[in-house]
Amino acid sequence: MHNGDVLGDEGRKTLNACVKVKIYGKPKTRRYDWKTAVSRLCGCYVGQYPSHCHNRDFQWRFKHFQQLLLPTEMDRSGNPLTNSTYNIVDIHNVLVRFDGRRCVEKYPEEGPGSDKLSVLIDERRADVEREYREAMADPDGRLRYSWVVAQRRVRDCFAGNFPGDRFTLFHALKNSEMKKSFTIIDIYNAFCFWDERRKTADEKREALVKEYETAANADAKHTLHKYSSHDAIQRLSDCSFDYPGKSDFNFFPREVDASGKSIQSNYDIFYIHKAFLQFGGKKLLQQYPEEGPGSDELKKLIDEHREKLEEEYQKAESHVPFYYYYHEVGDYSLRQYSLSEAERQVRDCFAGTLMWDTEIFPEKEKDESDQTYDIFDIKKAIDHFDTKTFLDACKYPNKQEPGYDERKEKVDKERARIEKEYEEATRNIEIDQGSGFIIHNHFIITNRHVIETHLNDTGGHEICISNAAIYVLPCTVIHYDPGKDLALLYCQDLNLEQCRICPLQLSNQSLLPGMSVFAFGYPMSHTEETALFVSGNVSGSKSTLAGHSMIVLNCSLNSGNSGGPVLCWVNGQLKVTGVATQKHFKEILTLEERQTIENIRESLQTHVISDLPDYVKLQDRSVSDYYQDPRTRQTPMELLTLKLYDALETHSQFNLGNALPGKLVVDFIKDSISEYTGEHREELAEVVKLANNTDNTLQSVHTVASNEQ
Questions:
Q1: For residue 632, is pLDDT > 80?
Q2: Element (H, E) at 34
Q3: Which of 234, 337, 375, 382 lies in the 20 to 30 Å Cα band around 65?
Q4: Model-level pTM greater than 0.70?
């Protein structure tokens, strides 16, 4: 030491033997209840779902798929029975899987009868392929099909619904939301429901067309009946099975006054008939197609499906009493159909589609002379839906829909939020840190509690050491002792010769009150890669429950210094005579109060309390209800208590800290030698030998000096 320089040039060389011990891992992420998770997923898709059915069919569709992708038991109302929660990784993974799913499945789910349907789909595709090749060879000889027949040929090459289709079962059956599968009873009841509505709609259509033809043939003096806006919409919706809602029905022109306010308008049969043609006319659900190519085959197919459905229903009725429809009876139980299979069986009994179903072929202009479709149109549509995913079909709304830009922006924002949260949740970050020091070419000493996070989850966390000389290197734990609070790390890539680092040597010398000591380490406030140096004195010692003594230091040690070396000059050399382990902290809370603190911390589902806004809502412990109105931001007492408690732990008013004596560290390494059987084991023996030789030399010096006196 020269001129008050307590370290000197030789001492400063040892700074790089002190390393920062970092624990890397995935951050703790907040969890979302099932309803919130599904809602966030729904916010990523707005396409293929007209606004009028967005709140029912759309939500129901997503409930069905998310029940498969985010499984949970449901009650009769369609709500989760359990308190299942999902983090952002779960949500992101579902989003990726859902994006990649075909918007319409080629084959049905595996189950009874699925093989037969798969074979039928292959046969129908083969028929299309054969007709397509014939048309390529002789384009002029190709057949022309009506819209109903052409669309049906495409649908018959797939299993289940298309992405924007209405759910026939959802509207026809009570409590269908809670069903995961359907029996032939469900399917038959749904068929009867729609067949009855079809008959009623057919009658309404015929009456509407008849009134239109009468009005068209009447003389100019004939007075037309005027319908109110409500009655006109009702008249129109009677022909379509659904009442889509006044706000969604924009087929009638609206009159406004000078201020822009809508005026109650009246409409005659010509307006209503024009609107009737606009939304599809006879393309809507009907029993049979119109006459034309392929109509006879389709009519025959519909009759076969109806007969088969009736036969299976009668068989089920004869085997199972009414009150056992949904339960097993003896050795007999009703076959369960998936949603896709059940929907397919209902639709196979009709021609045409429901009003808001997906139109496979783009609508042609009404004044086009050719309203038919050929095999080239059919083949193109099949190829399109073979590759079209839910991402293609459902991500964005149709550009022609009102509010396109606004809805598209909402989707982009929700997807960006999910992606950002996912990246943050899956990126390895430094979640804990402490100090340590190199004792030989490949070995490092630190506190056991410094690496506790890693020990609790070895698969999810990794340990690295770093400083200005070695940068960042991965380590493994080869031995630890909870009683001594010590851990021995092994670093395969450590090259002390290349980094010009001299490892620190241990000493068994006792630290007595009044002795000067130094410490190297990385307190939390220190972000640089070279360890900080602090000095102090030995204040005394204290006993521990583990049976060994701790050295009490009057030294400026803080959180993050744990595991760092405590050194002093021994026989002209700077030796490690202890390991910093903890700062003195007076517990001011009872055990029950500390448990309350931990409950609050756990409920937040976050690693660092400071990353939460001050207006986090804690009362109901619900992640989905965290945020209050920003205009009334207040810090809840529970959150304030947690912040103060964390600050007290890391910013203690005491300048006292504990250190493990060097002799305890040497004994720990001896224990490690007997446990460790890996590479470079001889280095540990050399560490112990150097510590013992140094202390023996020192003891000899003290003995000679005593004899001379």
A1: no
A2: helix 34-42
A3: 382
A4: no
